[in-house]
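Subject: design request, 199 residues
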């Protein structure tokens, strides 16, 4: 089954690009640009924990792998503005050893980068939400027993539902729309964890 790339993500296949992105400041830069749009290194600096000159170096490094690019100039044409090359990115575990190592490094850094998001949301965001939004928020921790192909089908079905919302033109969003972070972890268990399982 051809699952495609419904969300329009950049597909990272180069192990060097994976390793380049597997850095806390670079992940933070890319996430900030994807969420908030074009910015200069100086504007990004306080949000990514680096000085403007270091942030600028990281931006150029990301640009070398086509993850960010020059944006339209702002009101001050002397300042270089950057934008994310796409709304998101994806990568798969390559078959060769170098690629697998790079993908593991990037996966690990992404997990570390996102680990505190739920806690920050509960502490900083949730208390100020309207009851309507508070009711819709939450956590699901569902365990299923599936084949690898079935897991791929599940992920494909989720992306099929999300795609129209992810890719729609900003002008077509409802006036009461707001950003919602959907964290999806697909965490297959080891073969040892399956031993003696009856369910």
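Subject: RE: design request

Done. Sequence follows.
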């Amino acid at each position: 089954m051809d699952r495609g790339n419904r969300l329009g993500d950049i597909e990272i296949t180069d192990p060097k690009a994976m390793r380049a992105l597997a850095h806390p400041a670079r992940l933070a830069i890319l996430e900030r640009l994807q969420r908030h749009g074009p910015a200069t290194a100086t504007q990004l600096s306080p949000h990514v924990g680096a000085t403007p000159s270091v942030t600028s170096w990281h931006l150029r490094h990301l640009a070398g792998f086509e993850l960010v690019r020059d944006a339209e100039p702002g009101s001050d044409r002397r300042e270089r503005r950057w934008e994310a090359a796409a709304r998101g990115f994806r990568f798969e575990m390559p078959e060769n050893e170098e690629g697998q190592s790079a993908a593991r490094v990037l996966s690990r850094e992404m997990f570390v980068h996102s680990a505190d998001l739920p806690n920050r949301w509960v502490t900083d965001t949730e208390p100020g939400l309207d009851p309507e939004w508070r009711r819709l928020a939450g956590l699901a921790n569902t365990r299923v027993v599936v084949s690898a192909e079935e897991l791929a089908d599940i992920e494909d079905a989720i992306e099929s539902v999300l795609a129209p919302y992810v890719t729609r033109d900003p002008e077509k969003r409802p006036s009461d729309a707001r950003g919602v972070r959907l964290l999806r972890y697909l965490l297959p268990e080891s073969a040892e964890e399956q031993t003696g399982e009856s369910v």
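The two ends are 28 Å apart (CA to CA).
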